[in-house]
Amino acid sequence: MAETTTRSAPAEESVSIQLPALEASILYLRPSLRIHLLSALTDLGIFVSESVSVAPAALTVARVSANADLLVLVCDDSPEHCAVISGVRPEAAVVVAIVPPRSSQPKIMAAGAFVCCNDETSRTALLVALTSAATHSRRIRLAREAGEAMLFGDVLFQTNPPVLMREGSAVALSRSEGRVLATLVAAHGEPVGKHLLGDQGEQAINPANLKTIVMRLRRKAARLGGDPVMLGSVRGFGYVLRG
Length: 243
Hints:
There is one protein chain. The chain is α/β, with parallel strands linked by helices. It has 2 domains: 4-145, 3-Layer(aba) Sandwich (Rossmann fold), CATH 3.40.50; 149-241, Orthogonal Bundle (Arc Repressor Mutant, subunit A). It is 37% helix and 23% strand. It has 8 helices and 13 strands. It has a 6-stranded mixed β-sheet, with helices on both faces. Helix 1 packs across helix 5 (123-145).
């Protein structure tokens, strides 16, 4: 099994990139050696706080991730720990999972982790994985500070004027596309009904046109290399923007 699993991200020139002003919260859901993890985060210039989980873990996660850019979960692939990962809102923190060697990394990634390493991951591989997560976290922070949002994986959504951008490429959105996408972003991962998405004041959108707008948004996201599946439909209700 690969010792590290990471979501797609732009290649880094060096593992020694400094990313100051980022904060990581490490939450121990199981016992583990911590020296290599703390050393790697220190080398990247990331401020660290540590906590040991007490039941219920979900409440502890909500507390420690409130002001963190990175949430490092020292966990395993049990259903309980996967549920904890799934409960972390994407806008709250980028999740890094550290698991035992024989754990199922695909299961951890499917639960919502951005990076997954195991206890035997080499220091170099750990640095690379943490650099990828920190870089993604910094993009999210910069987008948030600029009143923008990171969608479809790592596609930047700018509202005024409405446009999708990724790695120097941009795709313009129509006003209707921008309004629909902004409404979905504001829902923070919760489903939004068709009636609300179609309610655009004097420029109301009928259900047939709404379906076309969603299809266009998916195509434009895919054109930039984003994941269009993250804009999903909720049968009989409306649409949801995941992640």
